Amino acid sequence: MAGPNPEELRRVVERFPTPPESDWFADVDDALGGTYSRLAETWYPELRRRTSAYADGEILREDVLEHVEAVPAFRLTDGAAPLPDRRAALVDAANGVDGVAAVSTWYNDLRALLVDSPENRSLLERVLHDFGYALAHGLFLGASSPEQVVRRLRVAYRSVGVRIDDTRSGDGGERTTFTCPYRDVAAGRCGEKWVCHEKLDRVDDGYVTYLEARGIDYQRPRDCPGSEQCYSTVTWDGDEQWWPKTPPSAVAGSL
Asked: How far out from the chain centre does Cα 63 lie?
């Protein structure tokens, strides 16, 4: 998936619902832990910068998506357990500021434009995805937990020449930091990381599809800005909810 049309992406980005200039917005934003103001003041300017860089061919879709997925978040659950006070705060905030619900709609439209989807894959990308999916049946046979899955993944990484630099376990799941030998392949012609992040990672997407059906969330390799390293994580696939991904209407009925 080479990525969305740059002008279409720019149009969606420019539709960001800016916070209102009103005295009572500060109270609403405070109830959301300052998330809306961080979105507008810090995260959104960087999104616009990356959108322009993408349009100029300086960065890949992956680089924009990485920033989109690192959006400031107001957590509505602790894992899969609802947080009633926070859910009520979000609904109250949406009743006070129309932009709160609008940001959710905008964010999900933006993310849908950037995420990998079957209908947007090229023939080569579909072949790579399907190869990864088929390979996963053997690679993860008998693996039923993030700990077991990540051990198999690290074997797979090493088998194709990837150097494992660091491994960590914790509440955030199993994290693997590594250096990929393919990040500069064809960089002069196609751009840095094009081969590894735009093509070879489609094999990992096949792993994602396989593991998702078995309740395990594999966040495939992501680029670390300013570093030669990448990382991936494996966790249980929970029903986490957070704004702006989760709209106020999705939690209003549970109060």
From this structure: 10
